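Notebook, student rotation project (T.W.).
Task set for the rotation: take a protein with a known small-molecule partner, predict the structure of the complex, and write up what can be learned from the model alone. Partner molecule chosen: 2-acetamido-2-deoxy-beta-D-glucopyranose. Sequence and SMILES entered below by T.W., checked by me.
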Amino acid sequence: MGPTRSLLGPIGLTLFLLAVDAAISMGLVSSMVSFLHHNGRGPFAVASPDASPFLLAGEPVNFVANHGHTTNAAGGTALIVVGLGGSIALWLERRERNKWDRSSSFFRIWTVLVLLSLLLTMAALIYTLAETAKTGGQAIDIAVARMYSHPSKYPDGRWTPENWYAAVLDLPLASANQRRVISGNLTIMRAWRWNLVALFILGFVLLALVVLEVLGMRKRGLQPVAMMDTLTTPLKRVDV
Ligand SMILES: *[C@@H]1O[C@H](CO)[C@@H](O)[C@H](O)[C@H]1NC(C)=O
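Predicted structure of the complex:
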Protein backbone atom coordinates (compact mmCIF):
# COMPACT_ATOMS: atom_id res chain seq x y z
CA MET A 1 0.00 0.00 0.00
CA GLY A 2 1.25 3.45 -0.88
CA PRO A 3 1.59 6.10 1.76
CA THR A 4 -1.59 8.04 2.58
CA ARG A 5 -1.55 11.71 1.66
CA SER A 6 -0.86 14.17 4.41
CA LEU A 7 -3.92 16.16 5.53
CA LEU A 8 -1.92 19.01 7.04
CA GLY A 9 -3.06 21.39 4.26
CA PRO A 10 -6.83 20.87 4.73
CA ILE A 11 -6.29 20.92 8.50
CA GLY A 12 -4.62 24.33 8.24
CA LEU A 13 -7.47 25.69 6.11
CA THR A 14 -10.21 24.37 8.44
CA LEU A 15 -8.26 25.69 11.40
CA PHE A 16 -8.17 29.15 9.84
CA LEU A 17 -11.93 29.13 9.11
CA LEU A 18 -12.66 27.92 12.64
CA ALA A 19 -10.55 30.68 14.20
CA VAL A 20 -12.26 33.33 12.05
CA ASP A 21 -15.70 31.98 12.96
CA ALA A 22 -14.79 31.85 16.66
CA ALA A 23 -13.70 35.51 16.48
CA ILE A 24 -17.01 36.38 14.80
CA SER A 25 -18.88 34.51 17.54
CA MET A 26 -17.08 36.44 20.28
CA GLY A 27 -17.68 39.72 18.45
CA LEU A 28 -21.42 39.05 18.15
CA VAL A 29 -21.78 38.09 21.81
CA SER A 30 -19.81 41.11 22.96
CA SER A 31 -21.91 43.45 20.84
CA MET A 32 -25.01 41.93 22.47
CA VAL A 33 -23.52 42.51 25.92
CA SER A 34 -22.78 46.10 24.98
CA PHE A 35 -26.38 46.56 23.82
CA LEU A 36 -27.65 45.06 27.11
CA HIS A 37 -25.60 47.64 29.02
CA HIS A 38 -26.66 50.61 26.91
CA ASN A 39 -29.79 51.01 24.80
CA GLY A 40 -31.06 47.60 25.88
CA ARG A 41 -31.67 48.94 29.39
CA GLY A 42 -34.44 51.16 28.07
CA PRO A 43 -36.78 52.29 29.39
CA PHE A 44 -39.05 51.98 26.38
CA ALA A 45 -42.17 54.13 26.02
CA VAL A 46 -45.20 51.98 25.24
CA ALA A 47 -48.21 53.78 23.79
CA SER A 48 -51.29 51.70 23.20
CA PRO A 49 -54.03 53.65 21.38
CA ASP A 50 -56.69 53.02 24.04
CA ALA A 51 -54.74 53.83 27.22
CA SER A 52 -52.20 56.25 28.64
CA PRO A 53 -48.55 55.59 27.71
CA PHE A 54 -46.14 54.06 30.23
CA LEU A 55 -42.45 53.16 30.46
CA LEU A 56 -41.21 49.57 30.31
CA ALA A 57 -37.85 48.77 31.93
CA GLY A 58 -35.38 47.35 29.40
CA GLU A 59 -34.87 44.09 31.29
CA PRO A 60 -37.33 41.67 32.90
CA VAL A 61 -36.82 40.37 36.46
CA ASN A 62 -35.72 36.93 35.25
CA PHE A 63 -33.12 37.37 32.56
CA VAL A 64 -31.23 34.25 31.43
CA ALA A 65 -27.60 34.90 30.50
CA ASN A 66 -25.53 31.79 31.21
CA HIS A 67 -25.83 30.40 27.69
CA GLY A 68 -24.16 33.62 26.51
CA HIS A 69 -21.24 33.08 28.91
CA THR A 70 -20.89 29.47 27.76
CA THR A 71 -20.90 30.61 24.14
CA ASN A 72 -18.19 33.14 24.89
CA ALA A 73 -16.09 30.47 26.61
CA ALA A 74 -16.55 28.14 23.63
CA GLY A 75 -15.53 30.89 21.20
CA GLY A 76 -12.48 31.83 23.27
CA THR A 77 -11.37 28.21 23.55
CA ALA A 78 -11.79 27.63 19.82
CA LEU A 79 -9.86 30.79 19.02
CA ILE A 80 -6.95 30.44 21.46
CA VAL A 81 -6.56 26.73 22.23
CA VAL A 82 -7.56 25.33 18.86
CA GLY A 83 -6.64 28.26 16.60
CA LEU A 84 -3.43 29.55 18.13
CA GLY A 85 -2.40 26.21 19.63
CA GLY A 86 -3.13 24.54 16.29
CA SER A 87 -0.98 26.99 14.33
CA ILE A 88 1.93 26.11 16.61
CA ALA A 89 1.15 22.38 16.40
CA LEU A 90 1.06 22.49 12.59
CA TRP A 91 4.27 24.45 12.40
CA LEU A 92 6.11 22.04 14.71
CA GLU A 93 4.66 19.05 12.89
CA ARG A 94 5.77 20.28 9.46
CA ARG A 95 9.22 21.00 10.80
CA GLU A 96 9.60 17.61 12.46
CA ARG A 97 8.50 15.82 9.30
CA ASN A 98 10.65 17.79 6.91
CA LYS A 99 13.77 17.62 9.03
CA TRP A 100 13.56 14.27 10.73
CA ASP A 101 10.75 12.38 9.08
CA ARG A 102 9.06 11.92 12.41
CA SER A 103 6.08 13.42 14.17
CA SER A 104 5.81 15.84 17.09
CA SER A 105 3.81 14.65 20.08
CA PHE A 106 2.50 18.19 20.45
CA PHE A 107 0.23 17.39 17.52
CA ARG A 108 -1.32 14.44 19.36
CA ILE A 109 -1.81 16.46 22.53
CA TRP A 110 -3.47 19.16 20.44
CA THR A 111 -5.82 16.51 18.96
CA VAL A 112 -7.25 15.97 22.45
CA LEU A 113 -7.71 19.73 22.85
CA VAL A 114 -9.63 19.87 19.54
CA LEU A 115 -11.98 17.23 20.94
CA LEU A 116 -12.46 19.08 24.25
CA SER A 117 -13.13 22.34 22.45
CA LEU A 118 -15.70 20.64 20.24
CA LEU A 119 -17.45 19.27 23.34
CA LEU A 120 -17.57 22.77 24.84
CA THR A 121 -19.03 24.19 21.62
CA MET A 122 -21.58 21.39 21.60
CA ALA A 123 -22.53 22.18 25.20
CA ALA A 124 -22.96 25.87 24.33
CA LEU A 125 -25.05 24.98 21.28
CA ILE A 126 -27.35 22.59 23.14
CA TYR A 127 -27.65 24.95 26.11
CA THR A 128 -28.48 27.91 23.88
CA LEU A 129 -31.02 26.03 21.77
CA ALA A 130 -32.63 24.55 24.89
CA GLU A 131 -32.91 27.88 26.73
CA THR A 132 -34.22 29.61 23.63
CA ALA A 133 -36.83 26.92 23.06
CA LYS A 134 -37.80 26.74 26.74
CA THR A 135 -38.31 30.50 27.09
CA GLY A 136 -39.76 30.99 23.60
CA GLY A 137 -43.36 31.58 22.56
CA GLN A 138 -44.12 33.96 25.42
CA ALA A 139 -45.70 37.37 25.06
CA ILE A 140 -45.48 40.37 27.38
CA ASP A 141 -48.84 40.95 29.07
CA ILE A 142 -49.37 44.66 28.57
CA ALA A 143 -51.59 45.02 31.70
CA VAL A 144 -48.87 43.42 33.85
CA ALA A 145 -46.20 45.55 32.16
CA ARG A 146 -48.22 48.69 32.94
CA MET A 147 -48.64 47.64 36.58
CA TYR A 148 -44.88 47.02 36.90
CA SER A 149 -43.75 49.97 34.82
CA HIS A 150 -40.27 51.53 35.06
CA PRO A 151 -38.38 51.58 37.46
CA SER A 152 -39.95 48.21 38.32
CA LYS A 153 -39.17 45.33 36.00
CA TYR A 154 -41.53 42.97 34.23
CA PRO A 155 -41.99 40.15 36.79
CA ASP A 156 -43.39 37.21 34.83
CA GLY A 157 -41.57 34.40 33.05
CA ARG A 158 -37.92 33.65 32.31
CA TRP A 159 -36.43 35.21 29.20
CA THR A 160 -33.35 34.92 27.06
CA PRO A 161 -32.36 38.34 25.68
CA GLU A 162 -33.43 37.20 22.21
CA ASN A 163 -36.92 36.13 23.29
CA TRP A 164 -37.39 39.15 25.53
CA TYR A 165 -36.56 41.76 22.90
CA ALA A 166 -38.62 39.92 20.28
CA ALA A 167 -41.59 40.19 22.67
CA VAL A 168 -40.79 43.88 23.34
CA LEU A 169 -41.02 44.50 19.59
CA ASP A 170 -44.56 43.07 19.65
CA LEU A 171 -45.61 45.94 21.94
CA PRO A 172 -46.79 49.27 20.50
CA LEU A 173 -43.52 51.13 21.12
CA ALA A 174 -43.78 54.91 20.91
CA SER A 175 -40.31 55.51 19.43
CA ALA A 176 -39.54 54.33 15.92
CA ASN A 177 -35.84 54.85 16.66
CA GLN A 178 -35.91 52.55 19.70
CA ARG A 179 -37.75 49.98 17.62
CA ARG A 180 -35.05 50.17 14.94
CA VAL A 181 -32.18 49.79 17.46
CA ILE A 182 -33.86 46.84 19.24
CA SER A 183 -34.63 45.18 15.94
CA GLY A 184 -31.03 45.56 14.69
CA ASN A 185 -29.66 44.10 17.90
CA LEU A 186 -32.18 41.27 17.85
CA THR A 187 -30.71 40.26 14.49
CA ILE A 188 -27.27 40.11 16.14
CA MET A 189 -28.63 37.83 18.90
CA ARG A 190 -30.16 35.48 16.33
CA ALA A 191 -26.93 35.56 14.33
CA TRP A 192 -24.78 34.41 17.24
CA ARG A 193 -27.17 31.59 18.04
CA TRP A 194 -26.99 30.30 14.45
CA ASN A 195 -23.27 30.94 14.26
CA LEU A 196 -22.85 28.32 16.99
CA VAL A 197 -24.06 25.74 14.49
CA ALA A 198 -21.33 26.81 12.04
CA LEU A 199 -18.74 26.73 14.84
CA PHE A 200 -19.82 23.22 15.76
CA ILE A 201 -19.67 21.96 12.16
CA LEU A 202 -16.20 23.45 11.60
CA GLY A 203 -14.99 21.95 14.89
CA PHE A 204 -16.35 18.58 13.88
CA VAL A 205 -14.72 18.67 10.43
CA LEU A 206 -11.43 19.70 12.01
CA LEU A 207 -11.55 16.86 14.53
CA ALA A 208 -12.33 14.34 11.77
CA LEU A 209 -9.37 15.56 9.65
CA VAL A 210 -7.00 15.55 12.62
CA VAL A 211 -7.99 12.04 13.68
CA LEU A 212 -7.60 10.78 10.09
CA GLU A 213 -4.16 12.38 9.96
CA VAL A 214 -3.06 10.75 13.21
CA LEU A 215 -4.28 7.36 11.93
CA GLY A 216 -2.46 8.02 8.64
CA MET A 217 0.76 8.73 10.53
CA ARG A 218 0.52 5.33 12.15
CA LYS A 219 0.12 3.70 8.75
CA ARG A 220 3.13 5.51 7.38
CA GLY A 221 5.16 4.61 10.44
CA LEU A 222 5.86 8.21 11.45
CA GLN A 223 7.17 7.95 14.99
CA PRO A 224 6.05 10.57 17.48
CA VAL A 225 8.82 12.07 19.58
CA ALA A 226 8.49 13.53 23.04
CA MET A 227 7.65 17.19 23.52
CA MET A 228 11.06 17.98 24.94
CA ASP A 229 12.83 16.52 21.92
CA THR A 230 10.72 18.61 19.60
CA LEU A 231 11.47 21.77 21.54
CA THR A 232 15.08 21.30 22.57
CA THR A 233 16.88 19.39 19.86
CA PRO A 234 15.95 21.03 16.59
CA LEU A 235 19.51 21.15 15.32
CA LYS A 236 21.01 17.88 16.48
CA ARG A 237 20.72 15.10 13.94
CA VAL A 238 19.80 11.79 15.56
CA ASP A 239 21.09 8.78 13.69
CA VAL A 240 18.59 5.97 13.50
C1 LIG B 1 -27.43 47.97 18.78
O1 LIG B 1 -27.53 48.84 19.87
C2 LIG B 1 -26.57 49.87 19.91
C3 LIG B 1 -26.79 50.66 21.15
O2 LIG B 1 -26.80 49.89 22.32
C4 LIG B 1 -26.70 50.72 18.68
O3 LIG B 1 -25.72 51.73 18.71
C5 LIG B 1 -26.55 49.88 17.45
O4 LIG B 1 -26.77 50.65 16.29
C6 LIG B 1 -27.51 48.72 17.45
N1 LIG B 1 -27.18 47.82 16.37
C7 LIG B 1 -27.97 47.64 15.32
C8 LIG B 1 -27.48 46.68 14.28
O5 LIG B 1 -29.04 48.20 15.19
